[in-house]
Amino acid sequence: MVKEEKDVTTTGAVGEHYDSMIDYYELLFGAQVHFGYWPNPEDDGDFPGALLAMTDLVVGELDVRPGARVLDIGCGTGGPAVRLAERYPDVRVVGVTVSEQQVYRATARAQRTGVADRVEFHQADAMALPFDAESFDHAFALESIMHVPDRVGALEQATRVLRPGGRLVLTDVFRTADRGTADLVTGFAEANILTVLPDLSAYDTLVPAGLTVTAVRDITENSRRATFTNVVAAGRERHESLVATLGEESTELFYSMCTALAAAGNLGYLLLTLTRS
Q: Is residue 108 part of a domain?
């Protein structure tokens, strides 16, 4: 029997997690704090390039046009939003996160890269977006919806702020048919304050009125193994700094979990594109 994750995804818990672990995530991932994407599933090189490739894959699904206003739901420290603004000079981006520290760092990143006139960040909850109805052309949620306690509620909020015809692109994690290491996935979920979908088809019952699924892609083979392999390598390269952040015991547990997840067959990764009707 599959052991289900405890629901630890409260706004306060997620915000505190990212406030306290902000240096840890930037140490391992830099500005793009999410899985990488490798077009060739056999490849696992160039981790920074793969992280940017995942951002570009998600942004590319938006079909952004000049003058568009885009919402980044769960913006982290601003890497994807800044990347979007750099690639599309006429686009404005608004990022939201429940982490106060992430807002500070994201704002500083936008200022350093010269896009602060078109990119802004706010501390806000995806379950209660502080924006007017139909105020964004597109939105994306790169590994953030898995942190909210109610995916349907978050999708309803995104639907509300999107203009008709706007796209919402998100990534999420799910359990695959291979249930052999269920407890490992449960441990990963609890450690990272997230919930894992029961299977790839879960969004069939999660999408609210006003949104239509345009495309759903299983990109597990292009992301999971190589991401966890590279995260371990990045950690070992910065071992002393990681120990200073996590402690010796937690660092070794981190290495063990990531190594196991790289080999595990039951954690999947999906890319979902939805359109506002």
A: yes
Average pLDDT, integer, range 24-49? 97
Domain housing 251: 11-276
Q: What is the pLDDT of residue 7?
A: 45
pTM over the 0.85 mark:
yes
Dihedral sign, Cα of residue 14, residue 19, residue 24, residue 26 = positive
Buried/exposed 17-41: b ≥16 CB within 10 Å, e otherwise: bbeebbebbebbbebbbbbbbbeee
Give residue-wise pLDDT tens across range 5-31: 444 457 899 999 999 999 999 999 999
How would DSSP label each residue in 171-192?
Answer: EEEEE-S--TTHHHHHHHHHHT
Per the domain annotation, does 5 fall within a domain? Answer: no
Q: Is residue 1 domain-resident?
A: no
CATH code at 123? 3.40.50.150
